[in-house]
Amino acid sequence: MSDKADIGVVGLGVMGANLALNLADNGYRVVVFNRTGSVTDDFVQGEAGDKGIEASHSIEEMVGMLGRPRTILLMVKAGDAVDHMIAGLSDFLDDGDIIIDGGNSLYTDTHRRHERLEARGLRFLGIGVSGGEEGARHGPSIMPGGSHGAWQHVEPMLKRIAAKAPDGKPCCEWIGPGGAGHFVKMVHNGIEYGDMQVIAEAYDLMRRGMGMSPEEIAKVFTDWNRGRLHSYLVEITGEILGTELEGRPMVDLVLDAAGQKGTGKWTVVSSMELGQPTTLVSEAVYARIVSSDPGARSRAAGIYDTPTRPFEAIVTADVESALYASKIISYAQGFRLMRAASVEFGWDLDLGSIASIWRAGCIIRADFLEDITSAYGRAPDLPDMIEDDFFSAALKDAETSWRATVAGAVTAGIPVPAYASALSYFDAMRSKRLPANLIQAQRDFFGAHTFERVDRPRGEFYHHEW
Question: Which of 173, 185, 265, 327 is catalytic?
Answer without folding.
Answer: 185
